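Sequence of GH26 domain-containing protein (Aceticella autotrophica).
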Amino acid sequence: MGKVNKDLDKDFKSVKKESITNFNKRWVIIIIGFIFIMLLGTILIFKTIKHDVQNWEICQNNYDGFILSYPKDWQKKIIPGVATILSKDGYIKLTIFVQPLDKVNAEQYILYSNRSINEGWGGIKLKSQKKINLFGYKAWQFDWIRTRLSPSDLNYYREFDVIIGKKVYTFMLKSDQQHFLDATKDLNNVFLTFKTIPAMVKPDFPSVPMVKREINIEGQHHRVNIPSGKTLWGILNPHKIGQIKYFDNLLPLEKQLDFKFQFLITYASLDTKFNQTELEQIYKDNRILMVALQPWWYGKKNDTSLIALIQGKYDFILREWACQFKNLGDPVFVRFGNEMNGDWSTWSAWYTGKDTDIYKMAWEHVYNIFKSEGAKNVIFVFNPHDRSFPNFKWNNYLLYYPGDKTVDWIGLTGYNNGTSYPGDVWRDFDTIYDPLYRKYMNNFPDKPFMITEFSCNEKGGNKANWIQQCFQHLSTNYPNIKIVVWFNQVDGKWQYNIDSSSQSFEAFKKGLENPCYHFQAIYSK
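Predicted 3D structure, token representation.
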């Protein structure tokens, strides 16, 4: 019996070993077959791609570190260190951003950037969101649509957020309903040619030649003359929006400073109605006005009125403003949707799926209405904030620029916030404006500049010295800045007012005595 059991055991082990061997062989064959099929599929794909792309153009971005191919009939634009844009009119626009992950991880960056898509702001409808393996890369895919805003509007989107090391490569495609399927196939084909390379070049903003610019603007009743080497000072002083009533608080201040501010600014939201008599009074007193037209209902959270504005729902408001400004007959500066690169502005692309073209569509709509109403005296000012927030590539100010044809002046805005809040940093005047001026002069060399609003907080450093540096360097180091506007108000904990201390007030008063700033610029005809 023992021998029989041993023989059975031996036979069992032999059968078991043979079964395991056969099982392993089957799995090896299956795995090899699967790999073969995958390789064959890949080869077929690449053969197809090779056939399609053999006459494609090469796009090599040495700023962001990648190379790919794209169809020959597409246009290419590289904004150094910002974006690569590939497009074909009426069919596709593919924008590629390369975002280094310095202070956030990939998921934080992707979800924060796409919050408007997930929340459905501005008429966005999310079709799908998923994590995918994109030809061997970890990636997120978003598909969404939004309301079509014009016959040529591309309102169907697909986005790949590809995670490679400590960077996210975003491929944001948009097309229309008719061409979306073909466009997504092209996106896949383009991506199959994509590979990373070392980023060898950094955007360079060299020092610019000293520009000598004189400003002459003719109106019906007044003319503006800002000679070369001089800078016109303006002010944003406490006043009632719409009614304005600037002189109630302004005249006593001007008496103390022994200085007349010939350039005034105010704000307007969609619920603002201007008092025409008050507007006329400003010009009768040999002053001119700049209005920040902000496309929202004041104080409304997550307001995406920018979409409704493009659709024409607020044309009656825009036409009323245009007619009021036209009737003044003299120069009126308009900065539409200022600080669009800050997420505190509801006209930022953060609210519209990162698509800065929507802002540009709104700008063009406003511009065309003002021109159609004959408001030729209106001067349009493009005015980003000096620091984009979030400081992501898709939010760069250059992506919002409407174009030279509809922009007359370039506005600069940079504040020294001091240290009143956590995260605030004291910044000297030149620390803010020297790099900003160089960038803008390289990007907008043919436009006159103005500082549309700026100021210095009292807390965190020596405000009087800051003001002194500003007056010393403004007219000499920044000759293309022809107008500057001081924000003379307390804003929360930020003490931006001129008289935040006696030392600051005296420094400001002394600075205005400089002949570069103390001159007549507005003349009656």
